[in-house]
Amino acid sequence: MSNGFSLASGSLNNDYLLMRHGHSEANLAGRIVSTPSRGVGGCGLSARGRDQLAAVLAGWGWARPQRVVHSDFLRTTETAERIARHFGLGLAADTRLRERHFGDLEGERDGRYAEVWARDARDPTHRYAGVEPVVEVAARMVAVIEALERTHAGETLLVVSHGDPLQILLTALEGRDLTRHREREPLAPASITPLWRR
To answer: For the chain, first and last CA: distance in Å?
Structure first.
């Protein structure tokens, strides 16, 4: 699955493949897992997620990546490992690519995301229930791309992260108001969204 778009301004030095992790044990359980204490060591890929990645690799339609950068949560690490192994690449974890922290909603049913997203649409700086504000997620995600732009050129870079952070990143890079990040089509597990240099 692919959701390409045009960058709002400027140009890129690299091509990026922004990938959401495959279906996870947290997805299977319908639970919010957003803290490093629970997400780094647990809640990896589900059997469905492993099958999704096998299908992605079997039907790979993008350029071969030169580098793989990923969130250090287990579900993103396992996703990145499978891609890297397939292409014979090393891995680089970056904590700025972690899941958005959902504060007091940690461990709750994932239906509660809707409460946060409704507030996001009104105020990207809110901290309802201790949730990480959209503006802070955007800043750390954009910082990853800026750092990669400074240190690499002419490469295809695979960046593996999570649904909310990637949607927020894409909204920021498009130059759209961050309150609108949920207006994008949700990124499916194991989907890849390309950003092409111009």
So the answer is: 22
Angle between helices 134-151 and 163-173 (to 10 degrees): 70
Q: Compute the distance between CA of residue 33 and CA of residue 23 in angstroms, rounded to an integer.
A: 13
Rounded CA-CA distance 110/122 in Å is 21
* SS3 label, residue 121: coil
- Give the pLDDT score at 3: 39
Using H for helix, E for strand and C for coil, what is the string for 16-77?
EEEEECCCEHHHHHCECCCCHHHHCCCCCECHHHHHHHHHHHHCCCCCCCCEEEECCCHHHH
CB 66 within 8 A of CB 156: yes
Q: Are 99 and 73 in contact (CB under 8 A)?
A: yes
- Is-above-0.85 flag for pTM? yes
